């Protein structure tokens, strides 16, 4: 394993909410963070109240909370308007008999209605279950069934993938016309309150919202009461239903302040869909808990569209993912030059390891360092991060946030010294830690099998200066001729080669070496898949990394298998290679 900690990209933004990392760590106390919430004074707690109503009532009523656009719509909503619309959604759901603890799913494209609904669910103490709009019927059914959902808010088109007749607990299918704002002419107005005949589960969102009052009583809850149920990305196996509580807000707000570095005048854009945890913890909760203007862009990804979104909205803080940055890099420097991106102050990434090559490129073309952040659906909020006020070592996911202790431990829970690869573990608990895996207590126990530690399932090492370096999923670490090789460092070296767009690396069983390294590679435009190129790429890794980490086999693919959230699915590559069944594919891209 190569431990290259020499390359450092220095601090360009000295002023940040965190200040000195070491000092912040020493002075930190979670109870100070709790004092920032109104419930600390009143004893009345609800995340949606803290995110919206509190601001609407304390001077930010007319500040823009949501700046929405897609190719057909362009709307903005103030904190006061968000308060009113989410109250309507709360009343709509209450009117259907839905209440505290009920699971209510959302299955629709990113539109303002999605955000009103999610906040409305939280306001009544129900548990939100966001689903990514690209899910097909089996994926939708499995999640609704597993969670015992009582209602789903969806669009007429997507409702075709909701097999209501197979889901006895699902009482309501509320239909949103996603192309229309809330106050559209209510399509179902002629039927009473938008409800269709007696025994039909279908209801018209717009008619119900239209009828509903803009004032609502908030359901005051406990910190430990349910907030959201997120199914994981399915990179390593069947997705797990991760259960989070209202108390997560303490860490979501805190990391919004010190990791996203949100400041009052920021215009913040998180590109993740709320179907994934980043799209709620950091696409909804963190920005609004901090009273910041939140940009939501609907529609499809294209480099032009994204750069245009930054330029038009003067985005200052941008949170995205390696897959997107790699695609933007693929689109080239010329695409960047056509736009004015000078509003950007702080750029961040999450979801997969961020290749050093991408950071170098970003630094050159955006003149900003891309800050990697590591966390998981299960952790509810960021844990190990790069901060604006800190030197950045490309390829490292940074250091644990103040208030959190991370370590590399062996399978018995012994803490390993610096530079040794092992289980990435977090000292339990932290405010946003999941409280259970829905319907699967045995799975939960696997994460906390070593007393005092949460075992992430990721493999990493810590360098002598306390920076953490991701190596791969524990199961993906390759053992070749007695050496342990993390797939990430091989992949990162591969993408430095000009011909390589993306790479996925696996260990392939080998009678002599235990495993050999096999790389699946998609090429950049203009490169031919030849044996000469294979040899050249192998040589490139041998010389740039090490002989034992160089792939023995290379296979070119037009596309690598990815989750819908853009993560390379190495288990699918492995299954292909070994001609084994691929397992749960509910989250795979087309
Ligand atoms: P599943 O648990 O269903 O297999 P998943 O682990 O991909 O899917 P998520 O919770 O969305 O589901 O992703 C968390 C994982 O993503 C982490 O365990 C880690 O492997 C990877 N990850 C997230 N951020 C980073 C990062 N900054 N660097 C490296 N890996 C990251
Ligand atoms: Mg996982």
From TrEMBL:
InterPro entries reported in the protein's UniProt record: AMP-bd_C, AMP-bd_C_sf, AMP-binding_CS, AMP-dep_synth/lig_dom, ANL_N_sf
Domain called AMP-binding enzyme C-terminal: residue spans: 489-567
Alphabetical list of SUPFAM superfamilies matching this protein: Acetyl-CoA synthetase-like
Class of the enzyme per the UniProt entry, highest EC level: ligase
EC number of this enzyme: 6.2.1.1
Top-level taxon in the UniProt lineage: Bacteria
ATP-binding as UniProt keyword: yes
UniProt-listed PANTHER family: ACETYL-COENZYME A SYNTHETASE, ACETYL-COENZYME A SYNTHETASE 1
Name of this protein: acetate--CoA ligase
Organism for this UniProt entry: Saccharibacillus endophyticus
